[in-house]
UniProtKB/TrEMBL annotation:
Keyword annotations: Membrane, Transmembrane, Transmembrane helix
Coiled coil stretches, renumbered: none
Source organism phylogeny: Archaea, Methanobacteriati, Methanobacteriota, Stenosarchaea group, Halobacteria
Transmembrane segments: 20-41, 73-99, 111-138, 166-186, 192-212
One Pfam family in the UniProt entry: DUF4013
Protein name from the UniProt record: DUF4013 domain-containing protein
Top-level taxon: Archaea
Length: 238
């Protein structure tokens, strides 16, 4: 599936245009709005691949894509906040412990250090767990277009505990890690490396979420669009 994911964008005749737009948006993602657009596009990739569509989506409907990306960002933020909050709580507790000893008590300093390190360890483990859950949460949202589905434990648990999803997540991680290595090598040439790295990063993110979306479609029964454009069971618009 890794080779298929790498070739996914090239299934479109205008793939160079898509990579160009995606790379430019990645380069300017520090401006926030381009990052929302990119996340909206990523959600479109998930929607397409979970339904078995080998044709990658195009950039368009910019407002809708941005709004969709904001919703996706909110999902990522909620899952990411938990490890961050725990790290801050333990860190604050460690500082209080050291302060209570006046900064001169060896026992207080040692205890404060242990508490801080324990907090960092717990936060790290929860961070890995969040990184594991987030792609599934985004996929469930992409399928249903309901924010609540991204946090539905009952819906996510069967996917998260399956070996197929775990394997797909690891493959996606390998793709992103390989891209980070390439980007690191490109950064030997400071400005040029940063620019080219943006395109490599975009390409890798799409490839990684091709793997996630395809696997989600294989594990989950996806409602397909009817020929008239309505979802099954949906009443036609009057």
């Amino acid at each position: 599936m890794i080779s298929e994911s790498i070739n996914y964008l090239r299934n479109d005749e205008d793939w160079l245009k898509t990579v160009l737009i995606g790379g430019v948006l990645t380069f300017f993602s520090f401006l926030i709005v381009p990052a929302f657009v990119l996340l909206g596009y990523t959600l479109d990739v998930i929607r397409a691949t979970m339904r078995g569509d080998e044709q990658p989506p195009e950039f368009g409907e910019w407002v809708d894509m941005t709004v969709d990306g904001i919703k996706g960002f909110a999902i990522v933020l909620v899952y990411s906040l938990i490890p961050a909050i725990i790290a801050m709580v333990f860190g604050f507790a460690g500082i209080l412990s050291i302060a209570a000893g006046g900064g001169e008590s060896g026992a207080a300093n040692a205890f404060g250090g242990i508490v801080t390190l324990l907090g960092l360890l717990v936060a790290f483990v929860l961070g890995i767990l969040a990184a594991y859950v987030i792609p599934a949460a985004l996929s469930n949202y992409a399928e249903t277009d309901r924010m609540g589905s991204a946090f539905s434990v009952g819906e996510l648990r069967p996917i998260l505990t399956s070996g197929k999803y775990a394997t797909a997540w690891l493959m996606a991680f390998v793709v992103l890690f390989a891209a980070s290595v390439v980007t690191g090598l490109l950064n030997v040439v400071p400005l040029l490396g940063f620019v080219l790295g943006s395109f490599v990063t975009f390409y890798a993110v799409v490839a990684a979420y091709y793997i996630i979306g395809t696997t989600w479609g294989e594990l989950h029964e996806i409602e397909m669009m009817e020929d008239d454009g309505d979802m099954p069971g949906e009443q036609p618009a009057v």
